[in-house]
Amino acid sequence: MRGPHNLWRLIRTGATFERTGAMRVVLEAMKVPPRLRLLAHVMGWPFKLLGLRGDPDLPPVTRAITALGPAYIKFGQILSTRPDIVGFDLANQLRYLQDKLPPFPLEQARAMVADELEQPVDTLFSSFSEPVAAASIAQVHRARVAATGEDVAVKVLRPGIVRAFQRDIDAFYLAAGLIEWALPSTRRLRPTDVIAHFEGVVMGELDLRLETAAAAEFAANTEGDTGFRIPRPVWSLSARSVMTLGWAEGAPLGDNDAIDALGVDRADLAERVLQLFLKHALRDGYFHADMHQGNLKVAANGDLIAYDFGIMGQIDEYTRRVYAEILFGFIRKDYRRVAEVHFEAGYVPADRNIDEFARALRSVGEPIFGMDATRISMARLLNYLFEVTERFGMETRTELILLQRTMVVVEGVARSLSPSINIWHVAQPVVEDYIRTNLGPAALARDLARAARVLTRFGPHLPGAIEAALTRARDPRAEPAPRRGVLAAAWFLAGAGVAWGAFLTFLFLF
């Protein structure tokens, strides 16, 4: 429950932040008014000694979050995707938040696997190693499938982690409510919705069947992408608390020396990382939202290997078109069109001045394009863009924030491989191809065909609905026509008229 019994958890959290010096950093990053900062320090000081010490070698915020445990670590990682809330400086700090924790015993992991898969581990696997990696939610073992001899990675959830997360999430909801009450200005950022998003992401990660499904869907979407592959999920050896994937062998993407030793062109690899991300986001609407160097490897043949599918991003087709037009407008320096797209999508209130908004967007784009390629920064562009859209009353769009933040991370990965990469030149062909495919005559024809298919589903209701409506018009004493049938008829006729008119327009113009 999200009630007063969670106050102790909040007190301990505040005390830990005060004791580690993280309180000051967070309050400044969130631009809390000075009087409330003072109040927070005064209220936190008496409880300071109740806080956890953490690792003094870590920066204050990372130190506090790591000390508070797995739920806070994961929440910090999620907040690293929300610079609109915590600011870009703090978001960058949180992005490097490590969730490496001591592993739990091998025998405990084996017992969990046997219980989940309902067979002894030695029956399923001919070998099952000590943990090769341990994080806040799960740890990974290397194993060999007894039946096939295939090397696999077996991910096992930490014991008791689900109940521990649920307790802390309840406290997070209470904190979000208090923040909205104490700082009305934060309501635009919808703190409670942020916690709900976090809860959805984490509860998805705590059911490894969902991550297995994400890996399978992502693999199916990207099967035809040259130079990119996903470890194959093994459904028969996966369950709620256990996930088995093919073993991914390769050089870590953060190790340039190892990549050079493979003979892989890092400049080509950098372009591929960026273009693949854009293709997945725009073409499929389903993308890896945690594409940092720790989740990417380079195979001996130069293929890029992605793994860890706990955080995936999804955007609908309309939002993809909007985002592509915004990117395309910036690439072409067509700030008026970028402004129009924001208004057409309803992102900016209709009572704002579109010309002023276009000029504000120009002030965002021109300084960026005037820079040398090595200094062009997507992070800087998005930082400026957030400031402008906030000034014009644009509400936070969670799905776009995640997409934009992931793009910043991907840019960082690409630049670590090739510091001189020009992100606009690399992005342009992908965005142009999407625009050409999805915003031209062919796209209009597809949209009309889809609209016709939707309208045909109402066909069986149409005769009865029309007859009932005509009967009612001829005899006022007749029973009223069923509301659903009348609406179906009206929508069908209106939709058919619109579709036919659009089709005639299409033929006339093209």
Summarize the structure.
The chain has 510 residues and is an alpha+beta fold. It contains 23 helices and 10 strands.
Features:
single chain; 4 domains; alpha+beta; Phosphorylase Kinase, domain 1; 510 residues; four-stranded mixed β-sheet; 23 helices
How would you sum up this structure, described in words?
This protein is an alpha+beta fold and 510 residues long. It folds into four domains: 4-99, no CATH class; 100-164 and 202-224 and 231-247, Phosphorylase Kinase, domain 1 (2-Layer Sandwich), CATH 3.30.200; 250-439, no CATH class; 441-509. It contains 23 helices and ten strands. The chain has helices at 7-20, 22-29, 34-44, 60-68, 70-79, 83-86, 88-95, 106-117, 121-124, 161-182, 191-205, 208-221, 256-261, 266-284, 317-331, 335-344, 354-369, 378-391, 398-417, 423-438, 441-456, 462-474, 483-509; strands spanning 125-134, 138-145, 151-157, 228-229, 242-246, 251-252, 286-288, 296-298, 304-306, 312-314. The strands form three sheets. It has a four-stranded antiparallel beta sheet. The chain has a four-stranded mixed beta sheet with strand order 4-9-8-6. Strand 1 (125-134) and strand 2 form a beta hairpin. Helix 10 packs antiparallel against helix 11 (191-205), helix 14 packs parallel to helix 20 (423-438) and helix 21 (441-456) runs antiparallel to helix 23 (483-509). The N and C termini lie far apart (60 Å). The model is unreliable at 498-510 (pLDDT under 50).
